[in-house]
Design a protein that fits this description.
By secondary structure, this protein is of the alpha/beta class. The chain folds into two domains: 160 residues, 3-Layer(aba) Sandwich (Rossmann fold), CATH 3.40.50; 109 residues, UDP-galactose 4-epimerase, domain 1, CATH 3.90.25. The chain is built from twelve helices and eleven strands. Strand 3, helix 3 and strand 4 form a beta-alpha-beta unit. The chain binds NADP nicotinamide-adenine-dinucleotide phosphate. NADP nicotinamide-adenine-dinucleotide phosphate binds next to strand 1 and helix 7. The site of NADP nicotinamide-adenine-dinucleotide phosphate has 26 residues, from strand 1 and helix 7.
Length: 301
């Protein structure tokens, strides 16, 4: 579900490209989402649990890629319906931080709110979850200014000198990773890669292990500029986190955004998972991406 969303569309497109899956998209009856050919579309009443159970019967996997503003209970009801329909695997609505890391999981409300769904799947014990960890999407965060870099106005704020390393992934790669994962055998007897290896666990994907400073340099290469063409402000990551927390407490959602990105700009808070976790890009055969090439595409020059 969510197959036309920011990440759902990428997953759907990668799954379709394999020509190996029978895909059913679940969508709200009131949604004007339209799906590509080759997908069975089930639009229905999201207040009806029986609608979900009926759609999920005989499915091998439920992929949830729902908007942040969707009702929190919706995901729980989908998970319960998947258990009733005996769906063996669920990709819960993750696609973000390393929620296996206690700091980045528990300090950021948007991450902490995802724990209950993984717990629910384990408690129901009918399905296994696989959580995709990809950190901020590169092709979303850079043009959105979330890396502290305002391309249009040539200004940047570098936290802790912009040197903190973190992982970031393009949405195409996330979509491809899900398709590659689902193309693995369900299990293997000889320790070769299988889907079951990731059961009730996270799968870690990364396009780039980089820093704000490296990204800024990459943008400068793409725009044929240097530091002297930019207004660069140095700031403290802890200060950014404190300010963002205050904003959030005043009900400003941008505070949540600041807390999330701030955790990637400060060392040791969980944004740098490739230093400690097994990155699955190799196992899944994901193509190697080039930071400067990707930046150039985003900057559009
Ligand atoms: N790593 C990152 O940088 C990053 C950035 C943003 C989001 N994320 C994560 O990615 C996941 C998916 O987010 P997204 O941005 O891809 O989602 P999205 O594009 O905002 O929405 C996905 C789908 O959710 C459905 N939807 C929208 N409003 C709904 C509502 N009120 N009730 C029920 N369904 C609703 C719609 O599907 P239908 O119209 O077909 O019903 C929509 O296409 C989330 O877990 C989010 O936290 C990660």
């Amino acid at each position: 579900m969510g197959g036309t969303g920011q990440i759902g569309a990428q997953i759907l497109s990668a799954l379709l490209a394999t020509k190996a899956f029978n895909i059913t998209a679940i969508s709200r009856s009131e949604s004007d989402a339209s799906f590509p050919p080759g997908v069975t579309v089930k639009k229905g009443d999201y207040t009806s649990d029986s609608f979900f159970v009926d759609v999920l019967r005989d499915q091998d996997v439920l992929i949830i890629a729902l908007a942040f503003q969707s009702p929190p209970e919706l995901q729980s009801r989908m998970i319960a319906a998947a258990a009733k329909a005996n769906v063996p695997f669920i990709f819960p609505n993750e696609y973000g931080s390393d929620n296996g890391h206690p700091i980045i999981r528990d300090n950021i409300p948007i991450n902490a709110s995802k724990t209950r769904y993984r717990d629910q799947i384990e408690q129901l014990n009918k399905s296994s979850w696989i959580g995709v960890v990809n950190n901020p999407w590169y092709d979303y965060s850079l043009p959105g200014g979330f890396f502290g870099i305002d391309i249009k106005n040539r200004s940047a704020t570098l936290y802790d000198n912009g040197l903190t390393k973190f992982n970031t992934t393009t949405r195409t790669t996330v979509g491809l990773a899900v398709a590659k994962l689902l193309s693995l055998p369900i299990s293997s007897s000889d320790n070769s890669p299988s889907l079951s290896q990731y059961a009730n666990d996270f799968v870690y994907i990364s396009s780039f292990h980089t820093s704000q400073r490296e990204i800024l340099t990459s943008v400068q290469k793409a725009t044929n500029t240097t530091d002297k063409d930019w207004k660069i402000t140095q700031s403290s990551a802890q200060g950014y986190l404190d300010e963002s927390m205050e904003k959030l407490q005043q009900g400003d959602f941008m505070g949540m955004v600041g807390i999330l990105y701030g955790h990637h700009f400060k060392e040791g808070l969980g944004g740098d998972y490739s230093s400690t976790r097994p990155i699955a890009n190799g196992v899944l055969g994901l193509p190697k991406e080039d930071l400067d090439e990707t930046t150039k595409e985003i900057v559009g020059v």
